[in-house]
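All the exercises in this workshop are built on plain-text protein records. A record pairs a protein's sequence with a compact description of its fold. Read left to right, the backbone structure tokens trace the chain's path through space. Once this layout is familiar, the rest of the handout is easier to follow. Here is such a record, shown just as it appears in the course material:
>
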Amino acid sequence: MMKMQSEADSSTRRNPDFELPPGWRWVRLGEVVQEALPGFACGKRAGNDGFIQLRMNNISSRGELDLSSVLRVPATPEQVEKYRLAPGDIIFNNTNSAELVGKTALFTEEKGTFLYSNHLTRLRPKFGILDPFCLASWLRLLWYRRVFEIICNRWIGQAAVQREKLLNLEIPLAPFPEQLRIAAKLRELMQEVERARTVCEKQLEAAKILPATYLRQVFESEEAKKWERKRLGEVCEINPRRPKNFTRSPNAPTTFVPMAAVDERTGTIADPEVVPYSKVSKGYTYFEKRDVLFAKITPCMQNGKHVIARDLIDRVGFGTTEFHVLRPDSKILPEWVHFFIRQPHFLREATAYFTGAVGQQRVPEEFLANYTIPLPPVAAQRRIAADLREKIAQVEKLRTAIEKQLEAINTLPQAILRKAFKGEL
């Protein structure tokens, strides 16, 4: 399929599963481009009158130019003349982490003066020999197939594709009229993929907000306005102490819940650990079955790492000290507390009470103790909680199905490009 550089020498090889159609031929990239010119470094920002310099983060993983975040830099007239981008130029990301080297985008802007940084290389195809869209598409296929990770040079945290290795890459060259036909077909198909992706992403966003919508419909309903209200500290024991008479064999298997074990999406303990009691007997948070665990530290708190303790060995467990524990009394169900504290507006309000240094901020116990919660009769709590569980479970199934569909859509560009360069479009 392609020619790749060996680290031992400059030899190349082709992928045997990639055969070119009749009339096509392999050529080195250096034979069909006018130039491969790296950009220039500029460490200073100019004012609004500076020139726009594209950088490696302006190239998306979809091979698109993202101009929403640009850097304006000063440049000499000579630099402007030398590094100005023109429609039809290909921008190649020559330096980054190994998995990002090789991201490529086709420049199409016709207005404005755009320059580019030294982390990028400008490839300018020979007119009438190589279509720019076809070249950008081929390089994108190579990036999908991780070719650039193989041929790049590496050092700590960084990687780069040397100019000579880039120019030595072999590319499939179809007759120019065929290139134009393929480019037109590729544009059409990629637009269809993007339309499907956009629809799917909107569906996913809609599914993500459904649980919050259901919670709001319950806790902000007209019915809720009639319910009694209590402070959480009145109906829950907050951070209860371990019983004084608690004993356990040092080797007894014990449930341990690190923060990573909590699935913020479903609000469940997805991956608890089982450890000897001696490993967690000191310095960890004690809780019991049906206690509600509230992640107090940022960003876990905002992300929704709050859970009801279930499936504990011998009905007890231990976890990270970054949990507050709420133990409901007989007037309130754990499910009711759990649904209430997972509301987005509750979590937003909690951030206003953070204490501690930036990056290590925590919600104090007093916030939970003093927060008012609506309290219908237990029978109503049970009925509403069951309804919420069913609805949210349905949302989770829907969300999973949409994510699988989106995953399938995301594989289409590579499959389409592969077909294009096998002459199957």
Confidence is low (pLDDT under 50) at residues 1-13.
